[in-house]
Amino acid sequence: MKKILLFLWVLPSCISCQDFGRLELVADLPGLLKEVSGIEYSTESNLIWSINDSRNAPEVYGFDIESQKIQRTIRLKGASNIDWEDLAFSEDGTLYVGDFGNNISNRTDLAIYHVPTPDSGEKRRQEPLITTFAYQDQINFPPKEKDKSYDVEAFIHLNESFYLFTRNRSKKYDGTTKIYKITAEEGPQEAIYVGELETCKDQSDCEITSAAIHHPTGKIALLSYNKVWIISDYQNDYFPSGKVEKIKLGHSSQKESISFKTENELYIADERTHGKGRNLYLLRLD
């Protein structure tokens, strides 16, 4: 019994003593979120809306930081979690769920679900509107290995449009993420190529896994397993024209979720892999 009590006392201490680099540990997420693949912080409810990766329930969870518990669950009626990868808020409070994970670039059922006013607390089950889409420049499903660049795990909503950032999985990795624009309306749409950004050359550390926007300032954050890129001062919606700052986190894990808390604070979450992760962190920008 003494050994068990000692273990339980030491375990939290060991977690708090880990080196998280520039990140501050905020919470150990509930077991239900072991494959967290997208988060969005709501200033209205102070909940962190979260989703799980593929093959999990088609549900969105509202995690409360203060109580360290899931306070809300919204099930999307008629939806399937084929490969949910990111969340995005619009300025009017609509939450969007990106079902566009596409590891080998062969999917023809890409979708974005619309969840209006999740913070209202009115419904536990919602039948969402759906945007379906196909890429303007994709012809083959799947394409050749060198052209496998249609996997997406990151998007934002801006000015009535979705902007998708690809996770580059081409055989000859060149450190770029392509950007596509989609009209944020119900029904079938076309994803229009609008440009690309160069991240870095190490594929294991430079693939984009999540995105977020701070609507009051337009500041954009892109995430990889060990880095964050902050994009600002761009012209209209051409993000490559802006200033890009690369931030090394000093902590590598399967990070696939990012959201602004304030203009200069970011929440980041990682999946549980090899006995580590499933944490919520805070990154303070300089």
How would you portray this structure in words?
It is a single chain. This protein is mainly β. It has one domain (21-284): Neuraminidase, CATH 2.120.10. The chain has two helices and 21 strands. It has helices at residues 2-16, 203-206; strands at 23-28, 36-41, 47-52, 59-64, 69-76, 84-89, 95-99, 111-115, 125-126, 129-135, 152-158, 161-166, 176-183, 187-198, 210-214, 219-223, 227-232, 243-248, 255-262, 265-270, 279-284. The strands form four sheets. The protein has an eight-stranded mixed beta sheet with strand order 6-7-8-10-14-13-12-11, with no helix packed on it. Strands 2-3-4-5-9 form a five-stranded mixed beta sheet, with no helix packed on it. Strands 1-21-20-19 form a four-stranded antiparallel beta sheet, with no helix packed on it. It is globular.
How do you describe this structure in short?
The chain is mainly β. The chain is built from 2 helices and 21 strands.
